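Pasting as-is:
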Amino acid sequence: MQQAVLDNLVALLDLEELEVNIFRGQSPREERQRVFGGQVAGQALVAAGRTVEASVVHSLHAYFLRPGDPTLPILYEVDRIRDGKSFTTRRVVAIQHGRAIFHLSASFQHPETGVEHMAAMPRAPEPETLPTFRERMQPQLEGATDEMRRWLLRERPIDVREVEPVNEFAPEKRPPHQLVWIRADGRLPDDLLLHQCVMAYASDMTLLDTTTLPHALSWWDPKVQMASLDHAMWFHRPFRTDEWLLYAQDSPSASGARGFATGSFFTRDGCLVASVAQEGLIRLRPKR
């Protein structure tokens, strides 16, 4: 069953080419009010990668401009900004209802060798010793609506295991950092770009949550409005997203109704493979 769910994610990222530099993506049939940001980022990176040969993406910078409509296809227009001997640059605009909803710039590099160093991986318990998302949520759902139960207990393509889980419905104040093990729940093809796109998809799942930890807030709090505003990633070394990765996250600042967080992905043997930065909206709705 889990492999089938992951295969659906791979199919979601497999865009339809309509014309040179123009691709079309779909959204899953889920009970969402807007398109998941990680989906748009992953699909946009696929579109950019489809126009590049013999180079590997090393960075992306993206802005979430408008909420995406999950009932409609998304058009991705790729602008071939530059094709250099070492670096290639692409810009992608995601469009719905004739308007841009998302903008991504990505840089690709021909493989080279050079100096190397990296940060050390934080210590963390083995992922197999931690509860799955379903196991963690089950005790919290007493009194939840049937709709909420279906949403939270549905099969998911990404296995997420928090080292210090948060009770989403009764959060307590704690420091703004967390460790999360993630992996694609199944086996992926041997395609580095696909693994990078799946990581881009997964990287948007828990990062903004880190900014809410000192304030005991959560996505489920009706007085809070949260949304990703921008997202940046740097890919340092090859990896597989269908093997466990430790996602170490910190939030150095929150102000002006925005929260800022950074993340680092480590392989199980301690190799730093990617870094992430994101700013998101954290707006407290006025009391009525």
